[in-house]
Amino acid sequence: MSELPLPPAFRPLGKTDIAVSPIAWGMWRLAEGGRSAAEAAKLVHAALDAGINFLDTADIYGFDGTGGFGDAEALLGEVLAAEPALRDRMVLATKGGILPPLPYDQSADYLRAAIDASLTRLKVDSVDLWQIHRPDILAHPLEVARVLDDAVASGKIRTIGVSNFTQQQIAALSHFLGEKLVTTQPEISPLRIDCFENGELDQAMMLGLTPMAWSPLGGGRLAAPETARENAVAATLDAVAQAQGVSRTVAAYSWLMAHPAGIIPIIGSQQASRIAEGAQAATVRWTRTDWYAVLVAARGEALP
């Protein structure tokens, strides 16, 4: 039975010459629990040493509802200030456009301020990827595009992406941008499969966008399945995981990575061992039969 191809060791970010690993590490919970810069540095090293060079953060990471806005970026900034050589080993991505308690603001003045604030917290002159975190319905895409194009022209950001945008919102922003979008970051997991059939990934392939999957483990539900559907999906992942000597988590990442759009799952763990383990996903082989078995379990019904 023919196997689907393994992901490359590195792939281009969108249509650029920036090479990223086929799996990323996200820092949503980096600042939790009073983690020190030294402890955060160990996690950064764990990712880089495992071959994961794509690091994803956001200005909202660390916000607890009342405070902490920017804490994850600031903590990573401390790590980079202590070890400047780490910056050259990573493709650094961050996001902005959420302003508690509004909640969203992509007005020109705010976007400019948000980009500058992220660079200050991160203690860097530029980031490799800057993404709009969630769309602001009250912002005209032309206005947003002008700010982002200017940020690229000024060298503050190298590339532009979006997160949680609809296909129509992506199309509208793309229409006004001089620079091309390189990423889209929706929620994708074996438990959230909408994008496989609603055209999101088809659009990404058509436009040359690299899909970055947030919450690739279904918000942790794959680790502790409760419903019949969750257990069915876990069982189909386990069949492949056990056959190839990996964990269910690794199998879940690799299932996403087998898609031809080049989905990059974002590891959410803040444990060095789990981050390193995630890199094993690039070695898991899928057949079409096994891959579709997971999809059928997630659909809860047979394919048409």
Q: In brief, what are we looking at here?
A:
This protein has 304 residues and is an alpha/beta fold. 40% of the residues lie in helices and 14% in strands.
Describe the structure.
The chain has one domain: NADP-dependent oxidoreductase domain (TIM Barrel), CATH 3.20.20. It has helices at about 35-50, 70-80, 110-120, 140-155, 165-175, 195, 200-205, 230-245, 250-255, 270-280, 290-300; strands spanning about 10, 20, 25, 55, 90-95, 125-130, 155-165, 180-185, 210-215, 265. The model has no long low-confidence stretch (mean pLDDT about 95). The longest helix is centred in the last third of the chain and has 17 residues, at about 230-245. The radius of gyration is 19 Å and the shape is globular. Strands 3-4-5-6-7-8-9-10 form an 8-stranded parallel barrel, surrounded by 5 helices. It contains 11 helices and 10 strands. This is Putative oxidoreductase. Pfam families: Aldo_ket_red. One of its GO terms (cellular component) is cytosol. InterPro entries: AKR (IPR020471), AKR_Detox_Biosynth (IPR050523), Aldo/ket_reductase_CS (IPR018170), NAD(P)_OxRdtase_dom_sf (IPR036812), NADP_OxRdtase_dom (IPR023210).
